[in-house]
Amino acid sequence: VKNQGRDGYCFYAPEMSQRSAASQRIENVLRHALMHDELRLQYQPKVDAKLGHIVGAEALLRLYVQGEEMFTPDQFIPVAEDTGLIVSIGTWALREACMQARTWQREGHPISISVNVSPLQFQYAGFYERLDGILNETGLDPSLLELELTERTMMSGGDGTIRLLRRIRQRGVRLSLDDFGTGYNSLSYLKHFPVDALKIERAFVRDIAQDAETAAITRAIIGMARSLNKDVIAEGVETEVQSAFLRDAGCSHMQGFLFGAPMPPEKFEERLTINGNL
Ligand code: C2E
Ligand code: CA
Ligand code: CA
C-alpha cells in the first residue's frame, strides 16, 4: 500500500527491488547467525575525561559469516528492526555483555558496560522481566550496567515509558540518552525522562574545532546537563583538540578512536591490564 501511485498503481523502481533483495539477504544471514552463534560483541573504551583511564565499555554488535565480517550495524540493525529479529538479537547482546562485564568484574576490573536498546526491544512487553532475569542469571552488579536509549526508543514506549524507566533505575541499572542533540525533542526529553547521562552525538564532536556555532551549542549542552547533575559522554572523539575542548567544557567521559576503536574482548582485556585498573 505504501508504494501506491496516484492512480492506485504500484511503481517499483529497480533500486527498490534491489534494496529489498539486499535486506532479504541480510535477514537470512541474521537468522543463520543467531542460530549458529555467529554474532559477536566488540567493546569500545569509555574513558574518564579528567584522568584518562578506562571506566567502561560500550558493547557494539558485529555480524560474522564464516569468520568474516559481512555487514555493518548500520546495514543490519535496520533489517533486524524491520523483521522483529532485534528482540532476540538485543536480548542476546544484553546477556552476552552482562556475562562479559561479570567476568571482568571477577578479574578485578569493575568497569561499567553500556548496551544499546532498540525501540522494538524496549516496547516488547517482557523487556523488564528479561533484563531482571539476565541480571539474576549473570550476577552482575546492576550499577555496572548502563542502557543506551535514543529519543526514538523513548518515543516508542508510549504512556508506560516513564514508569518502565523508573523501574529499571530502581533495579539499579543506569540509563543514558544516546545520540543526544540530533532529535527534535532532546531538551524536553532531558527534562521528562529519568536518565543518568547523555551522550553527545558524534556529528557535534566532529565539528567543534571548525565551527564556532557547534562549539557554542556543545558547550551549552554540556553546561546544562551538568547543572541537572547528569553525566555527559562525548562520542566519536578523534583528535586531541576535540578532547581538550570537551574536557574544558565539562564533559565527564569520552569515547572515540583517540582512545580506542571497538575491539574484540581479548584485546579489550589487554587494554584493561595496562590501564592500571587492577
Ligand atoms: P552508536 O550507538 O551511536 O555507536 C557509536 C558508533 O560510532 C559505533 O559504530 C562506533 O564504532 C562508532 N565510533 C566510535 N568511535 C568513533 C570515532 O572516533 N569516529 C567514528 N567515525 N566512529 C566512531 P558501529 O559499531 O558501526 O554501530 C553503529 C550503530 O549501530 C550504533 O551507533 C548503534 O546505533 C547500532 N548498534 C550497534 N550495536 C547495537 C546493538 O547491540 N543493539 C542496537 N540496538 N543497536 C546497535
Ligand atoms: Ca550507543
Ligand atoms: Ca551516535
From TrEMBL:
Residues 23-276 form the EAL domain. This is Diguanylate cyclase. It comes from Dyella nitratireducens. The chain holds residues 552 to 829 of 829 of the full protein.
